[in-house]
């Protein structure tokens, strides 16, 4: 399915291995808009796939995070001013599970991740103007990470994302990507 995507900021080094996508990040890549730091960066790597309106996407992310702000996960995007990036990000010497929601300006919600940060699954559902972000260590139990309003659209772009603001060379393996209609599960259904 990755082969149907198109790159935003194509990395110098990437390849497919079976159904998996491997990416090596370029130096100084990031997604951020204004808040706190005062700058705008839209240079991170994202392989986006177009949706037919509301959707659920799932993705497995495997990486070894080593430097401040190393990050990999999933991205939802309408344009440069309306997007979400979520996944693992190295901050204060610890791998954190977090998300950045940008609606004109970026916020940042993060916290320690109890599972293995080197092997994480993410699920993102957008339906009726609401995004629901979930994470799983095993692919069976999906805890809620974030619930937030997000602009309605006839088409979104969603897919794997990674960047390294402080260096180059984070190697990420993305696999088990699924994209389909919204699951429509109850908010407290963790399956």
TrEMBL record:
Protein name in UniProt: Regulation of enolase protein 1, concanavalin A-like superfamily
InterPro entries xref list: ConA-like_dom_sf (IPR013320), DUF1349 (IPR009784), UCP022704 (IPR015987)
Residue ranges of coiled coil: none
Pfam families: DUF1349
